[in-house]
Amino acid sequence: MDKKIRVGWFSFTCCEDSTIIFTELLNSHYKDWFKKIEFVHARILRKDDTKELQEMDIAFVEGAISSDKQEEKLKKIREKAKKLVAIGACAVVGSPANQRNFFNRDQTEEIKPILDLFKYKEKVMKLSEIVTVDENVPGCPMNEQVFLKLMEKYLHVS
Amino acid sequence: MHNIDSDFDISLDEISKIEGAASLEIKVRNKKIEDLKFSISEWKRFYTQAIRGKPVTAVPQLVARICGTCSNAHLIASLEAVEKGLHITPSYQTMLLRKLLFLGLIIRDHALHLYIFSLPDLFEKNSILDLDESDPIQKQYLEDAFAVKEVGNQLSIVVGGRSVHAPSPTIGGFLKLPRLKDIQALKPKLAEIRPKVLKLIELFAKDPSDFSLRTPVSYAGLSSKDFSFLEGAIKTSDGVTIQEKDFGTHLNAVIIPYSHARGFKFDGKFLMVGALARLNNDKDKLHTKTKESVKEYLDVFPSHNLFHNNLAQAIEIVHAIDLDCEYVDSIKTINNEVPVKVQPTESIGVGLIEAPRGTLYYRLDINADGTVKHGDIVVPTGQNQIVMERGIYELVERLLTVDTPKDQIVYEIEKFIRAFDPCMSCAAHFLKVKWR
Q: Which of B116, B127, B260 sits opposite A23 (nearest CB)?
């Protein structure tokens, strides 16, 4: 049997709608995908007992970046992944997770204690502001057809 | 000197197989818990601030983005809040279609939790990916998982246009109405999954996991005559009935300094919402067909065993199937209704529904120009957070008295948290921003 393709699925700041769409796509694709894919990291599907990030053929990354800790993790994912795909609007363009970037002075003052307490970044960032993104799957939630085409392209699955 | 089993630290960065991110830190010294912190580690997106000043008509589609999995619950609860505020009464057809959309969510979301998150625990597997396909029983559950989820998914797509962030439902109606024949076409599929879910009920009924709190808990949920999740008044296990609009006055927000979310008590008591609360209070309101099929499993309710939340969810899937079929049979035609026109007025609107994980509360204060003056949103996981943390504490205490190894404690804690089916994406975004 051919070697399985090593895939990671990660979620940063977002509503995880694309994760849900992904689990719904599994309904009709799981037989093929489970055969061909090894889910190296995917919190939605399994307890991650790896001590550190593993090498991946492809990393799907959902959500925007809100903290330095998230930024560091994203950079590590980039190092370990041959291809990195931004999944859904928050990862691709930053919105709506970045709505606080556009707050007026009153709104900003109000949330400031939380931003300080938990060490939020000053601005929420889309993935491409931090790392090189190889492919984008836009949409809120992600566009299923674009995602399926990518799966075909990279995983040679259908 | 302590031996290694008396002193240890547990630090779970990201609890797996739940919605969103949560973390847990426990410090055990001399076989006693010295410190325990269960915290929601999602990064906030500040929806309550973001909706302020926006036209109220834009709120439902925005707040749907609070949560990927409960998206349509946020959509429907916020639509109700806007409609109550603007004195719009949705038509019978609109309510019926919303109920159908919602039953699709109940099927899909409970199935995700039970099959994908919790079922692997029953087979002592890490993941549904590890189920043994050469074992016919495990293979069948794997197939059932995706078959059941898919029917719920399709139901939401047919009625709402999409199962996540449904585009069709709007204030006072539907932007695009579903076709009756598409809704009817799902009936045979619902019939196909029904026996699968009955098997799932049997499986969770056999789960020996048993854990109840020493601390008394109030169970609360919206109660309606047909258990429709969207209508009725709040009923508690203490025999109190509260109108939707007054629910907020009974909730006491509790700030948890190390968590990105706030917890809640109910009139000062520990509160639990969700499927277990609904079954504890309202099992007699389940669909007649459901009651016939699951009769032997209903005797355990009311139950204080928090793991029975799983069994209660599985029973609710069958109820959703039966209720859906009854609703579909009652529809003779879909009238070409257009959404009610919005007339802005200064007002307060409260929307309250039973989301899959429990009571979801929206209060919108609306300005005369139709913009939002203030919004308050209380999600089920916030309401359950205090009981959840208390439960973890008591569970670990108990496990320590019987010399349970650390790895086993971690496994038991995760299994316990999963039984609550917490949704961290939802819970993280409504912190009252008063840190003093």
A: B116
